[in-house]
Design goal:
This protein is an alpha/beta fold. It has 13 helices and 8 strands. The protein has helices at residues 22-27, 45-57, 74-87, 98-111, 192-211, 220-242, 247-260, 274-286, 290-306, 312-322, 327-339, 357-368, 383-392, and strands at 11-14, 32-38, 61-68, 91-96, 140-144, 156-161, 166-171, 179-182. α8 crosses α12 (357-368) and α12 (357-368) crosses α13. 48% of the residues are buried. It binds fe (ii) ion.
């Protein structure tokens, strides 16, 4: 195992219909709440109305900030910060999926940020890390409505800089939420495509750690835990797809998503997220759904390594998850699994053209390559490798 520090102060309340307790939870942290959510909340309007009534009952004033879109923007977060200052907000509630929760974290930290524009907290280049992470934040309560991101229980937020179209992240112990409220009943009614993309994102979070493990380390424990979590999602996503009202199955997906990125199941592995780095560029360029970008990257990634010698992790993954000895066959099975939910597995389906590939690879290089001009991965990858993987995903 690699050396690691594990710290996670987030209180998790996992409860079917737990929304009924949300007002009481928020009241613990403030009396003047900003609720951050999507620009279209029609799907949740009745839930939000009930929540706001509950907050009122607990003496918490409410300001709505319903402006968040998928692949959330820095400019929107800035508006949220301004609103917080204007309204003297003392607690921020994220009600939504990853885009909303990441924006809520950024806004809450932005209110107390004294290193200039909030853009300065974000890492936009791995080769030249000049980010100044926040050291303070308003308290946040995260109410997850989409099983995918894990943002509700971690110290990271991803935002797209609308000036540069680059997607990158802030990482700080000070942006851990106070509470993650996980109510699987909230995800009933989520459209099938979003449900599937969320499940694929969850798988990707675990698979990144699994495939990029350092083979010189003893990862027996992490491997079994990660395999179990991947299998749980692989078995449960089809159940949710067939039975969208199955709250138990929704609960499995929800807790798997939270666990996948809470730092626990991959502690002691070498954590790289190269597939995410390549996927982020697709989201930034084509506004592709995050989970779908990973659906395109993962099988291509496997096919790339099938042709190389340093693919021991991929063989293990093929055998233990896809029940076969061939990485190629496992990639086919994985792609078939993804497509069974109607999710794209080719970057051309996002609108990418063949001639875009060198540009996409350069974008990965400018944001995610290290000082050695390689993409953090295990093994590390060159610009040419990135182009080849995009070609395999075309
Ligand atoms: Fe992700």
């Amino acid at each position: 195992m690699d050396n690691f520090r594990y710290y996670n102060p987030v209180e998790v309340v996992f409860k079917e219909n737990g929304m009924a307790e949300a007002g009481e939870i928020v009241k613990r942290y403030g009396t003047n709440a900003l609720i951050v959510s999507y620009d279209d909340v029609s799907m949740f309007r009745d839930k939000i109305d009930a929540f706001e009534k509950d907050l009122e009952k607990h003496g918490v004033a409410v300001t709505e900030f319903f402006r968040i879109v998928a692949n959330p923007l820095m400019s929107t977060a800035r508006e949220g910060v301004r609103l917080c200052i204007e309204k003297n907000i003392d607690v921020v509630v994220g009600f939504g999926g990853g885009s909303v929760l990441d924006s809520a974290k950024t806004i809450a930290a932005g209110v107390l940020y004294d290193e200039g524009d909030i853009e300065n907290m974000f890492v936009f280049s791995h080769s030249c890390v000049i980010a100044k992470p926040p050291v303070r934040s308003l308290p946040t309560v995260m109410i997850s409505t989409l099983s995918a991101t894990g943002s509700e229980m971690n110290q990271c937020a991803v935002i797209t800089n609308d000036k540069t179209r680059q997607k990158s992240y802030v990482w700080s112990d000070y942006i851990y939420p106070k509470v993650a409220l996980l109510d699987p009943a909230l995800t009933v009614g989520l459209p099938p495509y979003q449900t599937a993309c969320g499940g694929i994102d969850t798988m990707a979070h675990i698979i990144e750690a699994y495939l990029n493990g350092d083979t010189s380390l003893n990862l027996t424990l992490q491997d079994y835990v990660e395999e179990g979590a991947i299998r749980a999602v692989k078995d449960t996503l089809p159940v949710v797809f067939r039975h969208p009202d199955d709250v138990q199955a929704r609960g499995v997906m929800m807790w798997a998503a939270t666990m996948a990125l809470a730092g626990f199941i991959n502690a002691g592995t070498m954590i790289f997220t190269p597939m995410h780095q390549m996927g982020h560029v697709l989201s930034a360029q084509y506004n592709a759904t995050h989970g779908a970008t990973l659906a395109a990257m993962m099988p291509a990634w496997m096919r790339f390594f099938a042709k190389r010698d340093d693919n021991a992790r991929y063989k293990l993954f093929s055998k233990r998850i896809w029940d076969c000895d061939s990485i190629e066959l496992a990639a086919d099975r994985f792609e078939e699994f993804i497509r069974s939910f109607g999710v794209q597995t080719h970057i051309s389906e996002f609108g990418a053209k063949k001639e875009d590939i060198p540009m996409l690879a350069q974008e990965v290089r400018s944001v995610s390559f290290g000082p050695d001009d390689m993409l953090g991965s295990n093994p590390k990858l060159t610009l040419k490798d990135i182009e080849t993987i995009y070609e395999l995903a075309f």
